[in-house]
Write a structure and sequence with these properties.
With 272 residues, this protein is mainly α. The chain contains 13 helices and 3 strands. It has a 3-stranded antiparallel beta sheet with strand order 1-2-3. A hairpin with a 4-residue loop joins β1 and β2 (143-146).
């Protein structure tokens, strides 16, 4: 089938990882449903124009365009599209320490409490927490080892002793082997899906009466904001977030709208 052949091309000829291959194959399927398996270049340009002028997110537009480019190369009709500039949105609805505390106290059981605490204290990403194994939670070191995180990078994120205590209680109630996933479904013991984590975070946020939109990555941004407000330096933040480049951390930190105001108020000269 065309789908399998395209996936093989992406893996063997382009050396792409499966998560990228799945995304590009999805882009091909959506396009082929409209244009068929062998579209002409002008048809594809009109298709990409419709995507670029739609209300879809930047990442959806970019991934669709890249997937279509690779597919057109695969069928021997290569085409190159322009890249839209990535927007730099301001992060303005991060959670305060009090709001995160309220979320933790509104968890129904130790399983939920462990997941929310780990997200909030470590800044670990959604997919990373789903892939996390028991052996990667370094209890004695108050740290989490992330294997094959974003960009296939390994790294360490610290957690507070209070978070470690919660994780120990969780493991006492839900014992598992070192090679088992840290969080699983209750019945079949399968690895949690990212959708499961999003649902938990959303439900607990509502239960805590937080009016902001609450999602897993917001806890990562909130950890960054709260560390900055406590005076954390940019290098410590870079290491905690496991960014490859300091520029990424600076962009991330500078987009949090109220932190700069807080720093000004702390250091503003006193004239009156």
């Amino acid at each position: 089938m065309q789908k399998e052949a395209f996936a093989q091309f992406l893996i063997v000829r382009k050396g792409l990882q499966m998560v990228t291959v799945e995304g590009y194959v999805g882009s091909y399927i959506r396009m082929s449903n409209v244009l068929g398996d062998y579209p002409e270049t002008d048809q594809v340009e009109k298709y990409i124009f419709a995507i670029y002028t739609s209300g879809c997110s930047y990442s959806h537009k970019l991934n669709t365009m890249l997937g279509v480019e690779k597919y057109m190369e695969f069928i021997g009709r290569p085409v190159k599209f322009g890249r839209q500039k990535k927007p730099r949105p301001i992060i303005k609805n991060t959670l305060t320490e009090a709001e995160i505390t309220t979320m933790i106290f509104n968890c129904r059981d130790i399983r939920q409490k462990a997941l929310i605490s780990m997200l909030a204290y470590s800044g670990i990403r959604n997919l990373e927490i789903c892939k996390l194994k028991v052996q990667d939670v370094l209890i004695t070191q108050n740290a989490i080892r992330v294997i094959n995180g974003k960009g296939l990078k390994d790294g360490i994120s610290q957690i507070a002793p209070e978070c470690t205590e919660i994780l120990i209680k969780y493991l006492n109630e839900f014992p598992r082997g070192q090679d088992d996933f840290f969080f699983t479904t209750l019945v079949k013991k399968n690895r949690l899906a990212t959708g499961d984590v999003r649902k938990w975070v959303k439900v607990i946020g509502k239960r805590a009466c937080i009016t902001k939109r609450v999602f897993p990555h917001l806890l990562r941004a909130s950890m960054t904001a709260n560390m900055l407000l406590r005076g954390a330096d940019i290098i410590s933040l870079k290491n905690q977030l496991r960014h490859a480049w300091l520029e990424t951390t600076l962009l991330y930190a500078n987009s949090i709208v109220f932190v700069e105001k807080n720093q000004y108020q702390k250091f503003a000269p006193s004239y009156i």
